[in-house]
Amino acid sequence: MRGSVVLSLCILIQLSLQNTVKAEDGPVLQTKFGVLKGEYVKARGKDTVVHSYLGIPFAKPPVGPLRFSPPQPAEKWAGVRDATKQPLMCLQDKQLVVDLVANMSMNLEVPDSSEDCLYLNIYTPSKPGANDKLPVMVWIHGGGFYLCSASIFDGHALAAYQDVVVVLIQYRLGLLGFFSTGDEHASGNYGLLDQVAALQWVQENIHSFGGDPGLVTIFGESAGGISVSLHVLSPLSANLFHHAIAESAELLESHEFNKVPLITGITDDEWGYMMTNFFSPPGWTDGMDIEQIMPILTMFNPTLQDESVAELVLKEYLGTSPDRIKIRDGFREMLGDFMFNIPARKLANYHRDAGAPVYVYEFQHTPSILKKKRPSFAGSDHTDEIAFVFGFCFGNGHVKLEGELSEEENELCKTVMAHWGNFARTGSPNGPGLTKWPEYGAEAEFLGIGLQQKPGKDLKGKHFTFLTQTLPRIIKERQEGPVVHTKLGSLKGAFLTVKGKDTIVNSYLGVPFAKPPVGPLRLSRPQPAEKWDGVRDATKQPPMCLQERQFSVVELEFLAMDVEIPEVSEDCLYLNIYTPVKPGEEAKLPVMVWIHGGGLSLGAASLYDGSVLSAYQDVVVVLIQYRLGLLGFFSTGDEHAPGNYGFLDQLAALQWIQENIHTFGGDPGSVTIFGESAGGISVSTLILSPLASGLFHRAIAESGTALWDGLLMANPLLRAQNAAKLCKCDSSSSSKIVDCIMRWSEEEVLECSNQFVMMHFSLAVDSYFLPKPVEEIVKKKEFNKVPLITGITNDEFGFLLAAYFAGKGWIDGMDKEQAIKDLTLTYPDPRDRWIVDLVANEYLGDTSDPIQIRDIYREMMGDVMFNIPALQLAKYHSASGAPVYLYEFQHPPSMIQKNRPSFVGVDHADELFFIQGTCFAKAHLKATAPFTKEEEELCRTVMAYWGNFARTGSPNGPGLTHWPEYKDETEYLGIGLKQKAGKNLKGKHYTFMTKTLPDLIRQGREKREHSEL
């Protein structure tokens, strides 16, 4: 009895206190946690009095030991809690919020931030104790999960106009809200768990505020919309809400979600200004270029880090226009689609397909008060609908707009609130006096919401189809790769794309064309490749033939090329194929077979890329490998080691192509061999070999021919014996030398090889591949008379080779002895020293200036090793009746000029960047710096010349400067940023080297022979 009296007394005191406070300051409400004192707010245009209760704790402060922990239930409080002040924001940069609010033309006092922030604000038209059961709308704010708060919004107008209870919640942000180690130490998602805790609090307490816990709608925008869609997914959120509105949000791909009625939608320019301005560089409004937009695009869409994917997407949105304004606007559209538009459509599709009602909108009106703050090109921007959803037009609380909205906008406020309110009540946004909002169905219906509402279909349809169907299909196909069936077995390749072309190139890497030349097959002719079982992976570069790998690493770094260099191995007889032809398609495209350079000692197929040339010229490109150095060209001059193994490997590759290239869409009757430096030497050597007859039909020898006097080993046995002694082998007989080499490990082969300069082991007369000396073959015209392109650069010994041969300090000047010593590469016989002196005297004369000697040295070595042999090849070939086209390459790649001394012209190998189209490469080999627009045009020009030649035997074609055929007037084409025909290339020195010097040599030898007699 006594207890009942005490309890009654307490209740009377509490009621008395409640009535006293209410009468003085505002509504006082009893909850199970304690008493709240709120305030009254009236929206403009409505008599309804809304009761607001601010800063209500729904969980314990997540501080101290509760940091990085799931939220804990709130505790009761004593006395009357003041619920008239905005709660502290969760920890964030307050100034960013201040700036954001200003940009949105809103006027409010932004609170400070704190870890103690798990509070919510409630706006209800229900009086305390009325026992109403009004729909509840729980707002989850946006801000990229690291900004904003409940206080940035105001729910009283929506509550008044729609007779609903509006709840604005807060949750931990940024690091404190979403940090995760992926394990039990920091499992993450704390901010989302805070939202769940708030929804649980609403279920248990909202009846005290006149709300119906069985009729809860969660709604949010941007990160808040994402949160809404995540609650749709989470089993923890089941039954905590009954309708959902995700504005400008996205959803993970899943069908295991809470199937509640849904509204989702976007604005018509989601990345119109606010988001773009935040992430873009200064001056973006005046236009953007591709280089500016790509880092931002890849940040938000990592799939664009794949250049082939990026190119497809850029073409879809930007076309090929270089216009900076079009790029700017396409960029804005892209980001809007990536981040909001396409995810909203996907969310709608998943929800619809699960059988839940879905309503989609596009907000199409920009608040008039914001237009003056934005460029004229911006449409309805990200967050523009919020002012209308919350009825800021009629706001009379702490959030006010800086300026008045128009009467039409006031009407739009009422319309939007009515749609949202109806949905909260019934699960449908439709109601009396409103434009019919169609449910999202098979035709992807939506409502355009603006000053006038208009239904539509297939929102963002073109880009939606591209991003959700076309692009994934292409990516999937490329990931799977093409599979081609050859007579040796099946190959699985890869799809490649290049810049500036839609063509898909199918690449097949590491295709064996001969047995591995190992064990007893070392220093033997190549043997036919064997069949394999199953599908062979042809997506990885083959190992390089045995060589000093580090040399290629250094050289490619110097050449500003980015490529992963494979390891080396004796097992290296593989080729790479690039074709624009799909497996199974009938095609007979020209075939271009590339033979790499490297002084017959270095290089590999993997250091080149045939995809661009294939795509731009519609040809099949084949890159072959061959044994190098000692293993490829060692010879004793007899049956024990006849030599020329590397050249025979090239023959074997050409034979394989004849038998198999049709499978890849190539025409075995239209094969062009081309190569540079030692590759050019190989091309012209194959022209000389009777074994190569019929294996190719056109030839391109760049900066290297077999007519260089230093190529043919005059006495292979002597060279073999000297090598054997140096490498600690018994040199007493050919058989013992070969037996010694056959026992070496790969490491021992390399150790011995590294003691010799490039080209030390080279071409030998073997009565098989090369039956006679080169000079005899060409003079008798006993060679394959096919159309030929040959040529040089204008500074063949400019830097790359000079740096290799000349020794330290050569850049600062040379003396005559330094300059003369490298002529022994061409005239290695000590008895021919007098010939060296003749050549040196012609070029150097009585010059003593070190700089002049350096420059003459470069010219002299370029002439002796490359220029004069190329001109001789052109002359002999033309004299045989075969068409010949001669060139001089006259433009150095701008990206590597900075790595060279200023005196260097167009160096050895400079043309390769343009022949293989490195300007447009996107595969494994890329330039580390961009080419100029003029250089890109040169790439197209050179590839067109080479491609035309592969097709017709003439480099000429539409849109190209005419390339004259080499005839009696020694015509040639100067190839640079501008092409220009010329005559009599290297005329003065050509006359000396081909007429004067041979006469002097003949006279000298006759004199020596006479004296010996």
Describe the structure.
The chain folds into three domains: 1-241, Alpha/Beta hydrolase fold, catalytic domain (Rossmann fold); 249-381 and 406-480, Rossmann fold (3-Layer(aba) Sandwich); 481-1013, Rossmann fold (3-Layer(aba) Sandwich), CATH 3.40.50.1820. It is 37% helix and 17% strand. A hairpin with a 4-residue loop joins strand 17 (445-449) and strand 18. Helix 27 crosses helix 31 (987-1012). The longest helix has 30 residues, at 324-353. It is elongated, with a radius of gyration of 40 Å. It starts with a helix and ends with a helix. Residues 1-23 have low confidence and may be disordered. Residues 1-23 form the signal peptide. Residues 26-252, 482-992 form the Carboxylesterase type B domain. Keywords: Disulfide bond, Hydrolase, Signal.
User: What is the CATH topology classification name of the largest domain?
Assistant: Rossmann fold
Strand content: 15-25%
Strand order of the largest sheet: 3-4-9-11-10-12-13-14-15-17-18
CATH architectural grouping of the largest domain: 3-Layer(aba) Sandwich
What number is the mean pLDDT? 93
Largest sheet: 11 strands, mixed
Question: How would you describe this structure in keywords?
Answer:
1013 residues; alpha/beta; Rossmann fold; 3 domains; 11-stranded mixed β-sheet; 31 helices; 36 strands; 37% helix; elongated; disordered N terminus; CarbesteraseB; signal; hydrolase; disulfide bond; Carboxylesterase type B domain-containing protein
